[in-house]
Structure formats: C-alpha cells, structure tokens
Design brief:
Elements: E1 5-8, E2 15-19, E3 31-32, E4 37-44, E5 47-54, E6 60-63, E7 68-69, E8 79-81, E9 86-91, E10 100-105, E11 111-115, H1 117-120, E12 123-132, E13 135-141, E14 148-154, E15 160-164, E16 173-181, E17 184-191, E18 198-204, E19 210-216, E20 225-227, E21 232-236, E22 240-245, E23 257-260, E24 265-271, E25 274-279, E26 282-287, E27 293-298, E28 309-312, E29 315-319, E30 327-331, E31 340-344, E32 349-350, E33 355-364, E34 373-381, E35 384-387, E36 398-400, E37 405-416, E38 424-434, E39 441-452
Parallel strand pairs: 32-39
Antiparallel strand pairs: 1-2, 3-4, 4-5, 5-6, 5-7, 8-9, 9-10, 10-11, 12-13, 13-14, 14-15, 16-17, 17-18, 18-19, 20-21, 21-22, 22-23, 24-25, 25-26, 26-27, 28-29, 29-30, 31-33, 33-37, 34-35, 34-36, 34-38, 38-39
C-alpha cells in the first residue's frame, strides 16, 4: 500500500519499471502467467480493478470491467486456469455471505461466467482457490455465514459437485488455508471468535473421505506447505512449525519433528532440503530432515501474516514489515568443494542508514570438523593493516573449528551506517585460514573491496 506496482531485476534489485497509481488500500500480491503477463489488483481500500500488465515493459494490456470488492483483505490471490485460458478470482467482500467466483478471459479480461449466492445457492469465501485438472477446491458457505466448508466445483459444468465439511464442524467453523498435495487436499480450519486452536484435515480428492485429522491448541498462522519429494506437510502455528508426513494412520498421527520459535510462524517454503519461513524479526532456514536451524536472516521489523518467502533460480526472497517494508534477496551458497574462506558484506559502497556487516563463510569439504584453526581477518586502510578482532596493527586472529560444509564467522555484526563519516574508497578486507603453526595458508583466501560516502 502507498506505492504503484514495481518490477525489480532479480539479480541486482534494480528498479525496471512501475505501473499504475498509488495503491491507497491494501496491496494484494500480483500473479504472473506462464507468458509473463502480470495480473494486478489495484484499488482504494475495498474496491479494486484487475489489471493485466506486460511483465517486460510495464504497459497495460487490459483492465477488468468490474470493480471488485475485497473487504479488508491484503491476501487475495488471482488464480489461473491456463488450460482454458481463464483467470479465476474470488471476490470476498467484508459483508458476510456475499462472496463470488469470477472466471475471466486471460486475453481480454471479459467475464466468462460467475458463481454467487443468488444464482447458485451458495457463496464463496476465502482469498484464493486451488485447482486440479477441471476441478476447483474453494471455501463455500451454504446455510450459515459462520460455517465454512470445502466446495468441489466443476470448471466444465460450473456445478457444485460435492461439499466437504470439517468432521469436527461447529457453529463457528472457518477455513484458514487450502493446499493441494498430490491426490490429497490439506485444509486447515480455525476456531471463531479469535480463539486459539484448529484442525488440519486431510481429504482424499478421489471421494472426499477424510484420511486423518491433526488438532492443535495454538493459533494456525498461515498456509500449509507441502514437499512432494518427502510427501511431507509443514503446518505453521504460533509459535511452532510442525512437520507431518502425509502417509499416516488416522488416530495415530505423529509429527516428524516440531520446531519451537519465538513467535508466530509465517509462510513456510521449501527448496533443496531446506524449509524457509518468517517469524518474529527474522527469516529462518531449517534442515528439512531434522528440523534443526541452519541459519537466520534479520528482517529489522517483525514479520506478520502477509509477509512471504519465495524461492527462484538460486535465490531466496522474503519481505520485511513495519515502516521499512523491505524486500530481501539471498543467494544460496555454492557447493562446498574447496577448503577456504569467503568474505561477505551487503554491498561494496555504503551511505548513511545503509545496513552494514562483515562475515566470513568457511568451507570445509571434508567429513570431519577441523579444530583450533587460526583465521586471520585484516583491514587494509591505504597500506596500513589492522587485525581483527581488536583492529590493531599487532597481529591477532580468531580460532575457529569449521564443521563439514559451510559455517559462518561474524567479524562485524549488522549495524546502520552512521551519518557524517566523510568519504573513502578502495579499502580492502583480507581473510585466510592457516595451519596451527601459522606457517602456511590453509585453503583459499578471500578479499573484499569497499568504501563509503
């Protein structure tokens, strides 16, 4: 909110183009088609127009003929049925029992057909739907606006083929998330009136039968993630992330592991055997097999339910919150194949208020940890050398015990670049490990040049 649609280069973060006016209400995320068209909801508080924008140039292709009402949602997601050249969008206004499903042409934005309470006897609910072949799974309401169920809708006939309730349905039953997991559908239901607790229900998509249910006493805080390779679900709650294998026996459902954090868990995403998520003021990376924390990344502001993690082409992207609303991009570390060190800073040039830090990544390609290894980190200021950690001209060093794979040693913790630091260029960091006798280098060394103004 407060900005137009913005496009950035994924490698550099450079702004490529902007589109449209200032978003004065909530700012739902865009959706991108396979040919690069960006579908973008732009509006004022509750009323939005759907725009199709050329992803390469930022020029408008079409604008929808309807003014969509999305209530107070900033999480509405435009969905796709590219097999039929269709855009699928739920309109879920603030008023109860009035949600609709609109199906529009991808090329023109014209409405092909829609579902509503007045036409079909049920209303739609939620911020998104999921699709499998010619079937849509979405939240619906039939007789009571506070009793939400899964509706199975046929995209060919436009008919409601089946309705799947929560087996533990009460008067106040609300859908929190819907995730397609192969031939199963994972749905989380939350309690009404702001009460903690909820149910994860696994339906068989073949007949709607319930395979198993897992109940939690904490708040469910977002969408379930699914890894088909492990056939495993990740359920985010406050303050736990719960790993659950999909193939389990009803009545005896056991977590593979549980990670306990410091606040609500948001937006688990999976890549390369790692689970990424946001919580409190950090993004976290966990080993998918064991649930152990591999690394954390500072956000600077607390995460919340609208902040997300995305993984694409060798980088992980996540969004901050609060007054900054920053977008962060981290590259995956390269394969650890050569013994040595790599110096890393956020940039090569710093100005007032920039985030600055200095770390040394250590690669140990062996199968056992190294012990009592001297790590030298030197700052070269125009030919004068200052040795960390004390930054004096007297030689000092760190003693490290590199574990197999990558490990990190912090030289300068993150800080905000101060005001009034004059100008400097061409300063150099040098980092290297040596043998214990400090008579020869151990592996590859590293350098980093930087400056400020």
């Amino acid at each position: 909110a407060g900005n137009p649609l913005q496009s950035y280069d994924v490698s550099t973060g450079d702004l490529k183009w902007t589109y449209g006016g200032t978003q004065t209400g909530w700012a739902p995320q865009p959706t991108v088609t396979s040919n690069g068209t960006v579908l973008y909801l732009q509006g004022i508080t509750t009323s939005y127009l759907l725009h199709a924008v050329n992803g390469l140039t930022g020029t408008k292709i079409w604008e929808s003929p309807l003014q969509f009402e999305l209530g107070w949602s900033d999480a509405n997601i435009v969905c796709l049925d590219e097999e039929r050249n269709q855009v699928l969008m739920l309109e879920f206004p603030f008023a109860p029992d009035s949600g609709k499903l609109y199906v529009m042409d991808i090329d023109s934005g014209a409405v092909k057909w829609y579902l509503s309470k007045a036409l079909n006897g049920f209303s739609m609910t939620g911020n998104y739907l999921v699709r499998k072949d010619d079937t849509v799974y979405a939240g619906i309401v039939q007789e009571s606006w506070s009793r939400e169920r899964i509706g199975v809708i046929n995209l060919t006939t436009h008919a409601l083929d089946a309705v799947w309730p929560n087996p533990a349905e009460t008067y106040d039953t609300y859908i929190n998330s819907i995730t397609l997991c192969g031939d199963a559908l994972a749905v989380t239901f939350r309690k009404g009136n702001g009460e903690p607790g909820g149910d994860l229900v696994i339906y068989d998509t073949a007949d709607g039968s319930v395979r198993w249910t897992y109940t939690v006493t904490q708040f469910i805080t977002g969408d379930v993630a699914y890894n088909a390779a492990l056939d495993r679900l990740y359920l985010p709650t406050e303050p736990r992330l719960i790993a659950l294998d999909l193939d389990q026996t009803a009545g005896d459902v056991q977590p593979a592991w549980i990670h306990t954090g410091y606040g609500a868990i948001y937006s688990p995403s999976i890549a390369g055997g790692i689970v990424y998520f946001l919580s409190d003021t950090n993004a976290y990376a966990l080993n998918e097999t064991t649930g152990t924390v591999l690394r954390s990344f500072p956000l600077g502001e607390p995460a919340y339910e609208g902040t997300q993690v995305a993984v694409c082409d060798g980088s992980v992207y996540f969004s901050g919150n609060g007054g900054t609303c920053d977008l962060y991009a981290y590259g995956f570390p390269p394969e650890c194949s050569r013994l040595g060190v790599t110096i890393t800073m956020p940039a090569h040039h710093f100005t007032w208020t920039d985030s600055c830090s200095c770390t040394v990544d250590i690669c140990n390609p062996g199968s056992t940890a190294l012990t009592h290894i001297p790590l030298f980190v030197l700052l070269d200021v125009y030919g004068t050398f200052y040795f960390a950690p004390g930054f004096t001209e007297t030689p000092t060093w760190y003693t490290v015990n590199p574990v197999p794979g990558w490990s990190e040693h912090i030289v300068l913790p993150e800080f905000e670049w101060p005001y009034g630091t004059s100008t400097a260029e061409g300063l150099m960091w040098y980092a290297a490990m040596t043998n214990q006798e400090i008579t020869s280098l151990l592996g590859d060394m590293s350098t980093w040049q930087f400056g400020w103004s």
